[in-house]
Design a protein that fits this description.
This protein is of the alpha/beta class. The protein has a single domain, classed as P-loop containing nucleotide triphosphate hydrolases (Rossmann fold, 3-Layer(aba) Sandwich). Helices cover 36% and strands 29% of the residues. It contains 7 helices and 10 strands. The strands form 2 sheets. Strands 6-7-8-3-9-10 form a 6-stranded mixed beta sheet, sandwiched between helices. Helix 3 crosses helix 4, helix 3 packs parallel to helix 5 and helix 5 runs parallel beside helix 6. The structure holds adenosine-5'-triphosphate and magnesium ion. The site of adenosine-5'-triphosphate has 12 residues, from strand 1, strand 2 and helix 1.
Length: 227
């Protein structure tokens, strides 16, 4: 479903060119629960941002569900992202002045769905991720784990094909991080949503059905695992 072929990405940092990805190839099937590991600076975030249509590709090709991403205009990438991809950021990126409910519902409001449907879908999902009774709280009145659950609900509400999560547990204690992984795994199982996440955390890697290791912008290993 996601085909990544010889993908390259360079950043210019002053006079220096940084080769963040040096020709990465992999196939990701529908319904996978895949972890991308590797040391700091190995290219994990860069790869997720390219798959997530957040940044442009410098060489090679990525296609998602048959749609090629290279050489697209920024506006077209936004459309693909809006319809197919949910993103969970390490730092949650919730809107502080909105309640948990509003942070999730806003995604459907932007798609201009009917009010009743927005309410029904948002409430159902917030309960599914364990936030019953906390719908009206702002992020500052929620724990880190609860905020990350709101972020996961926001990524899932439009029922994307793919959820990309960049170190989703990095700001959580290990118990809360594990609960979040169980939640993502359950949604992966129940809905068949594809999850691709990056991590440094061995506990997170333990949950992955496939573990791909990056090193200096190249794939060092890629193995399926039984969990
Ligand atoms: N905007 C940028 N400008 C210049 N260099 C960048 C930029 N973003 C990333 N890089 C460089 O590209 C390389 C890959 O960075 P990336 O953020 O993908 O690594 P990472 O594996 O996610 O690291 P971490 O585990 O620390 O999050 C690094 O050498 C980094 O310094
Ligand atoms: Mg990173």
């Amino acid at each position: 479903m996601i085909t990544i072929k010889d993908v390259k990405k360079d950043y210019i940092d002053g006079d220096i060119k940084v080769h963040a990805l040096r020709g990465v190839s992999m196939e990701i099937e529908r319904g996978e629960f895949l972890s991308i590991a590797g040391p700091s600076g190995s290219g994990k975030t860069t790869l997720l941002n390219l798959i997530g249509c957040i940044d442009s590709i410098d060489g090679g090709e990525i296609s998602i569900d048959g749609e090629e991403l290279a050489r697209r205009k920024a506006k077209e990438l936004v459309e693909i992202r809006r319809h197919k991809i949910g993103f969970v950021f390490q730092s949650f990126n919730l809107i502080p002045v909105l309640s948990a409910y509003e942070n999730v519902a806003i995604v459907l409001e932007m798609l201009e769905l009917p009010r009743g449907e927005i309410r029904e879908r948002t409430m159902t999902l917030l309960h599914e991720v364990g936030l019953e009774g906390m719908e009206n709280r702002r992020p500052s009145k929620l724990s880190g784990g609860q905020q990350q659950r709101v972020a996961v609900a926001r990524a899932l509400i439009k029922e994307p094909l793919i959820v990309l999560a960049d170190e989703p547990t990095a700001n959580l204690d290990s118990g809360t991080g594990e609960a979040l992984l169980k939640l993502m795994k359950r949604i992966n199982h129940d809905r068949g949503t594809t999850f691709v996440f990056s991590t440094h955390d061995p506990m997170v890697m333990d949950y992955a059905g496939r573990l791909c290791r990056l090193h200096d912008g190249e794939i060092e290993s890629d193995e399926k695992r039984s969990v």
